[in-house]
């Protein structure tokens, strides 16, 4: 069975296997990937190019260990805006895009309007540099933060088990 990825393309079992292998090691050569998924290196190359063009593979990056490079403090912050209009949301999103310490920003339903994942070198840096700057954003009404004590699970791998069936 194939899974639709856009108007013109479908994911088959080889695409799913290739995506799974790339999630494990994106630095693998086309030869190595081909051996894993039983395709020639040229077929692997064509498929990767198609998956990139379709937007399924957004980009290829190196995953760094934040603690080993001096960014050992992580916080999850819950942001509530003063008002809930399109302009306020757009203003907040534009401002937050300029915060390199904010790894992820999610617009959510519920008690908060946004949830942020933030990294910093120290609690002082988190407090002084990040949270204080967040409070200066005019549309922000409230910020509540939790400091991460321990990461139990951290993964960038998407569960591909149901894709392509």
TrEMBL record:
It comes from Rhodoferax fermentans. PROSITE patterns: HTH_ASNC_2. The keyword S-adenosyl-L-methionine does not apply. Pfam families: AsnC_trans_reg, HTH_AsnC-type. Keywords: DNA-binding, Transcription, Transcription regulation. SMART domains: HTH_ASNC (SM00344). One of its GO terms (cellular component) is cytosol. GO terms for molecular function: sequence-specific DNA binding. Residues 11-72 form the HTH asnC-type domain. This is AsnC family transcriptional regulator. The keyword DNA-binding applies. One of its GO terms (biological process) is response to amino acid.
């Amino acid at each position: 069975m194939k899974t639709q990825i856009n108007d013109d393309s479908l994911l088959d079992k080889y695409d799913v296997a290739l995506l799974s292998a790339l999630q494990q090691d994106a630095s693998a050569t086309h030869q190595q990937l081909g051996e894993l998924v039983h395709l020639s290196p040229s077929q692997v190359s064509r498929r990767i190019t198609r998956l990139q063009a379709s937007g399924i593979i957004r980009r290829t990056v190196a995953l760094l260990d934040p603690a080993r490079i001096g960014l050992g403090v992580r916080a999850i912050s819950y942001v509530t805006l003063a008002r809930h209009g399109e302009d306020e949301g757009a203003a907040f999103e534009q401002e937050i895009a300029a915060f390199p310490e904010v790894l992820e920003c999610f617009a959510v339903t519920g008690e908060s309007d946004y949830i942020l994942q933030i990294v910093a070198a120290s609690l002082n840096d988190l407090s002084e540099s990040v949270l204080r700057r967040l409070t200066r954003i005019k549309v922000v009404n409230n910020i509540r933060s939790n400091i991460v004590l321990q990461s139990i699970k951290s993964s960038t791998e998407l569960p591909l088990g149901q894709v392509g069936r």
